[in-house]
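To: structure subgroup
Subject: Chain for Friday's discussion

All,

I'm putting the inputs and outputs inline so they're searchable in the archive.
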Amino acid sequence: MSSITSQNNMPVTERFEACILLGAIGDAWGSSYENYVSPIKPNTFYWHPISQPKETWLLTDDTMLTLASCEALLNKDFGPEILSRYFVKYHKQNKLTGVGASTLKAILELEIGGHWSQVGRSGEYAAGNGAAMRIAPIAFRQSITRENIRDLCRITHKNDEAYAGALSVVLAIRAILNGEWRGEPNLLDILIPQLPDTNVRDRFIEINSNYETKTIEEVAKLGTNGYVVNSVPFAVFSASLVMKTGINNMFQQIIEAGGDTDTNASIAGQIAGALVGLKGIPINLYENLQQLSEFSWMEKILHQVRGTIKWDI
């Protein structure tokens, strides 16, 4: 690992595994700093060192719901009803940490017999990044359509912006799988024409203005919280620079930007992982992930799903 290149002949199964693993790394690293505000102020002199909190990696609902999506894909009748069952299963097994309000509402209603199409939030309160953060595995199933993606989002988020955010992640990964994007040219130029007319699309257009000179720090000023219009375009943009910044630096800049650091880093990690593959994952980050108690279980799921993935270009 640790050689950051984009290989045209990389097996799609390797891209899948790297996508999920690097997304988990972003989630675990970012969870240490979610909504964190540093006590150290710029341009301020301190007489004594200011202590910073100890970094503790933790897998949150970002990774767990992504793995639930992976397991659901093993079912030949995969769809929103099957996926809903796995959400409930993971919740009953206490695997979900930090789950958002829209997703939690949906799961609780599913547990008492609610239909997947009727549970969860709708309207402006459903415009979070909860659907986008778990959608990455779906990108690797070539037969899944936009309408399928919308239904999978609607389990928890009945909102056009939430759908556009999730679609953005799928399209970014599929641009890699189809050979359209290999770290260049501009990923946003590929995505924008394919997105529906939404605020998510408008944000991508805003970021894409003077793209060549934009930095992660600059784009972060537009917003980095869990609102999908802020979160997903920021994460996708960050991932689009990975061949320039490197994996470690990409994550560091996302985390330093604050806000919903675990989800932003997870989504960026998923896209970057699909691009660089297993060999592109820095060894120090991979070893940190290996130390988590869930690692062997995660690997088992990924190996099962790998055997079902095929991609025709």
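Points worth raising on Friday:
DSSP finds 15 helices and two strands in the chain.
The two ends are 26 Å apart (CA to CA).

D.
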